[in-house]
Amino acid sequence: MLEASAPIILLHPDDDVAVARRTIQAGAPAGHGALHAAENVGRGHKIAVKPVPAGGEVRKYGQVIGIATVDIAPGAHVHLHNLAMVPSVHEHRFGAGVEDVMMVPEAERRTFLGFDRGAGGTGTRNYIGVISSVNCSATVSRAIADHFNKAGGLEGFPNIDGVVALTHGGGCALNNKSEGYRVLIRTIQGYARHPNFGGILMIGLGCETNQIAPILEHYKLEEGDRFRTMNIQAYGGTRKTTEAAIAMIKEMLPSVNEARRTPQPLSRLKLALECGGSDGYSGISANPALGHASDLIVRHGGTTVLSETPEIYGAEHLLTRRAASPAVAQKLLDRIDWWRDYTARNGDELNNNPSFGNKLGGLTTILEKSLGAVAKGGSMPLKAVYEFGEIVTEPGFVFMDTPGYDPVAVTGQVAGGCNVICFTTGRGSVSGFKPAPCIKIATNSEMYSHMSEDMDIDCGGILTGAETLEESGARIFEEVIAVASGRQTASELYDYGDNEFVPWQIGAVT
Q1: What is the model's pTM?
Q2: pLDDT digits over 424-481, tens only?
Q3: What spatial distance separates the first Cα and last Cα of the chain, rounded to whole Å?
Q4: b/e string for 371-405 if b means 16 or more Cβ within 10 A?
Q5: pLDDT of the residue at 1
């Protein structure tokens, strides 16, 4: 448990900086020996606890987060004006940190109440999805969903959570042999077979590059009573398509409504580990607490999925040490190499992250942000590395290659089969991600109180010393089980989550 009285938090004895628990005024004692703040240091920001010469490495979490651009004296505010990115160079000792997992005995493992879809997995929700193959069918798809959600179209079907229109900005003007096309159809098929859907209707325009038939053929999707397809041109226009689609869904409603929750093992749970709007506290409170919850889920037989490759850059050596095999570790490094090339050829760099809000919250370099972000993954062995939207089949802790942009990252995780999302935030992210419920976890109590209507869990007690990481992680674990069993999250209470289906657009649009 952190010492609550000190104004700063020193995370590792080798660190050159500590994190301000609250704003420290210039000249005020920092609670670390005779250290006084040389200037104002905002809450969540870094204060130097020892001198660092210009060009010297600066450590936090016991790891290098950058180099000093000027001489830094004890008590100085350490941020963008005196700390710069340093190339990420680490020794990657594959599997050196793998330890035997103490699994919970089968008879003692927790369960949740879910919808058993047989070989299709277990749902935590029971939606009907309307998936656009192309942006040109987005308006019709939304009109169909609106008919049921806003006009009382689901009256008498209490076991159906809603009709979700999954629309996006692509689907045409791309090469159907390109990487971007493969990622798009992989994402669409992942949602089409997601266990949180009891029924699916896929709609195209008719002349787009992203034809529906090849998706069905490639991924062996078969039409039936609860999986239908159509295109607007074949049905004679928008009104006729909308009317026909409404009739199709009405035919689905009775059978989808028959679904009932039954006890399911946690081995049927796939939890997405996500962060957004991070701040200087993320790597201290909510992220490691979620990491502890992730470990608990894995020990009970479940699966947890870390993502956002640009936000593990600089901390990937911590994951390769936990890789279950050299092949898993190498695949992770290969994806990072892909990102180096991808950003370079687009005139960008991986240190374009952190964002504006991250920096306001106290984060400075991607190395610092990544060290806090990987804490969401706990301590379990890394069992597999997946490309964007690939169906996750390996139980335990795994990684999925995605961008750091939250809606895209979560879209990939849900396409991979994640049926619950845990989303840590320090600045206050507010998204929902239908069809998967999203648990918002606040890093600090001030933001939690200010945005309490949008938050589900407050981890600020870790910072004040009122709660340990383990206690907070155990609360998250219990909340995951409750939400998987049907408890609504804050975003669900407001019916948020209709606009966060954002497939990753890679490559040229012609």
Answers
A1: 0.95
A2: 999 999 999 999 999 999 999 999 999 999 999 999 999 999 999 999 999 999 999 9
A3: 55
A4: bbbbbbbbbbbbbbbbbbbbbbeebbbbbbbbbbb
A5: 47
Which residue carries 């900086």 as its tokens? Answer: 17
Backbone angles phi, psi at 97, to 5 degrees: -105, 10
- How do 303-306 and 396-400 pair as beta strands? parallel
**Sole residue written with tokens 């009317």:** 243
301 against 366, higher pLDDT: 301
pLDDT for 428 equals 96
CATH topology for the 127-258 domain = Ribose 5-phosphate Isomerase B; Chain: A, (3.40.1400)
> Residues 284, 19: contact at Cβ < 8 Å?
yes
CB 250 within 8 A of CB 154: no
Q: How confident is the model at residue 301 (pLDDT cuts 50, 70, 90)?
A: very high
Would you state the structure tokens that stand for residue 322, as one six-digit string? 């936990």
Q: What is the rounded CA–CA span in Å between residue 495 and residue 501?
A: 15
Q: Are 263 and 164 in contact (CB under 8 A)?
A: no
How far is Cα 128 from Cα 107, in angstroms, rounded to an integer? Answer: 34
Residues 284 and 291: their CA atoms lie apart, in Å, by: 11
**Whole-angstrom distance, CA of residue 439 vs CA of residue 272:** 10
| Measured distance CA(491)–CA(456) in Å, rounded | 9
The CATH code of domain 1-86 reads 2.30.130.110
CA dist., res. 49 & res. 30, Å (int): 9
Taking the C-alpha atoms of residue 444 and residue 459, their distance in angstroms, rounded to an integer, is 6
Cis check: omega of the bond before 437, within 30 degrees of 0: no
Closest Cα to residue 400, out of 275, 307, 502? 307
Q: How far is CA 342 from the centre of its chain?
A: 21
Mean pLDDT of the region 75-91: 88
Say what the pLDDT of residue 25 is. Answer: 97
Residue the block writes with tokens 């992220």: 287
Q: How far is it, in rounded angstroms, from Cα 80 to Cα 22?
A: 19
Query: Could you give the strand order of the β-sheet that contains 396-400, starting from the edge strand earlier in sequence?
Result: 382-386, 396-400, 303-306, 270-275, 420-425, 438-442, 457-458
Residue 346 contacts by C-beta under 8 Å, 6 or more apart in sequence?
none
In the sheet that 57-60 helps form, which strands lie side by side, from edge to edge? 57-60, 63-68, 83-84
Nearest to 171 by CA among 225, 209, 221, 126: 209
Q: What angle do CA 155, 455, 363 make, to 5 degrees?
A: 140
